Amino acid sequence: MQLHHVRVHKSDENLAREDQLAWKIAEVAADPALVSEDVTEMVINRVIDNASVAAASLTRRPVIAARSQALAHPRSNGGDGSTVFGLAPARRVSPEWAAWANGVAVRELDYHDTFLAAEYSHPGDNIPPIVAVAQHLATSRGLTGSALIRGIATGYEIQIDLVKSISLHAHKIDHVAHLGPSVAAGIGTLLGLDKETIFQAVGQALHTTTATRQSRKGEISSWKAHAPAFAGKMAVEAVDRALRGETSPTPIYEGEDGVIAWLLDGPDGSYDVSLPAAGSAKRAILDSYTKEHSAEYQAQAWIDLARKLHNEHPELLVAGAIKSVRLHTSHHTHYVIGSGANDPQKYDPTASRETLDHSIPYIFTVALQDGSWNHVDSYSPERAGRPDTIALWNTVTTTEDQEWTRRYHSLDPAEKAFGGRVEIELADGTRLVDEIAVADAHPLGARPFARAEYITKFRTLAAPVMEESEIERFLALAQRLPELTAADLGGLTIVAKPGLLESIATPNGIF
C-alpha cells in the first residue's frame, strides 16, 4: 500500500492533477494488476449474497417503486441494456436505471456486507451498478466475467480504503459519498478506461453524491435504501459524461471550495489515505464481512449474544424478571443506534422498519425474548407492539465504553470488534454479565461465513419468491463467474416465480 497525504490547497497553489486524490484513485483503477484467487472467490460470494437479499426484498414497496421507474426507461441505444432483479433476462432497461432498481433491492433489508472504520459502508453496493454496465456493454466491448471481477474488486478497494481514512459521519455527511467515487473507479476498471477519463468520472461522482446523514436519523424513511442506489446511478452517469469528454470540479477533494474544506474537516483538514501501489493486488474485499441477520451491522453480535442468553438463561424470559439492561459498547453503537442517539423513535413500537433496524434496544429485546431473528417477523407491527416486549425494551439502554470504542477503530483485524458487554440487573437484585466481540458469522466469529453459508442464505431467502430451477440456475452461473463470456453476463440476475410480480400493484409517477 502507498500512503497519500491529502490536504486543502488554495487555488493559487495550483495543485498538480497527478497529486490529487481523485487522480490517485484513477491510477489504482487503471492499473491492470491481476486478481488473486481468494479475492475472486469472495467476489463470487458477494454476488450470491447480494442476490439473496435482493430476492427477499422483491415484493417490498420501495423495491417495487424503483423497479417500476426502471421499467419506464427501456434499453438505451448504446448497448444491449441491463437486467432488473425479478424480471426475465430478456427484459432490459437503461444501465443507470438498472443500477438504481437493483441497488434499492440489494439495500432495502440492510442485510448484505459491511465494512466499518473511520466511516461506515456496505461495499456490496458497488456490485449492482458495475454489473449493470457490464451487461449493457458486454457485446460491444467483449466483456467477460473476469473483467467484471476486476471491476468489482476495484470498487471494493476504493470504497474500503476511503472508509479507513476519511470520516464523513463526523460532519453529518452520508457514507454514500465514498460510494460514488468507488463505483466510478470500478466501472473504469471494468471498461479498461484511461486515467484521465476515470479521474473526471470520480470527481463528478463525488460531487453529485454528497448529502447529509438525515436519511439515517430520527424517523428513518425508505430513502435509506435508495441513497446508495442513487450514488450508483450517479456514478454510471458520471462515467458516461466523462467518456463524452466532459470534466469535473477540480480539485474535488483538495480545492479551497472543495469537499474537505467545506463538508469535512475544513480549510486546515488533512487525511492520510492508503491505496494499492502500482502492480499491487486489490484485496480490500477480504477485509469486509457479511450479515447473518437483517439488521444494522453493529447489531449482529448483539443478536448472537441475546440468543445465547435466551438459550442459557431461561430465567430471563419470565415476565418482569429483568429490572434493567445496560449495553456497554462503542461510540458508534451508542450514538447512532443506541440510546445515545436521543431519538425517541428508537423506543416507539409504531416506528418504521428502517427505524427499528437502527434501534439496538429494540433488536436486543426481541432477540433475547425469541432466541432468533427473522428479516420479516422480527420487525412486524404485531411483534413490536407486544406489551411484554415494550416493557422490557424500555429498560434497555446503551453507554459508550472507551475500550470498545478503541477496539471498534483498531486497524488490527484480530482486535477489531463490534460488540460489547451486557449487564442485566434482575428484579431479585442479582446481576448477569456477558460479552461478545464479533458476530458469529464474522471471519473471527463462532461460525464464520464461507461459500456454504452464502449458498444457504440465498436458498433460504429466495425460496419464497423463486422457482427451485431458477435458484439452481443462478447459483451454478454465479459460481462460474470467472469463466463467463459476454453472452453469459446477462444471466447474472434472478427471476421471480411466474405471476408473482404481476400480482403486485405498481405505483404511478411522472415517467
TrEMBL record:
E.C. no: 4.2.1.79
Keyword terms of this UniProt record: Lyase
Residue ranges of every copy of the MmgE/PrpD C-terminal domain listed in the record: 293-481
Record's subunit section: Monomer.
MmgE/PrpD N-terminal domain boundaries: 20-268
Annotated GO MF terms: 2-methylcitrate dehydratase activity
Protein name, UniProt field: 2-methylcitrate dehydratase
Source organism of the structure: Cryobacterium luteum
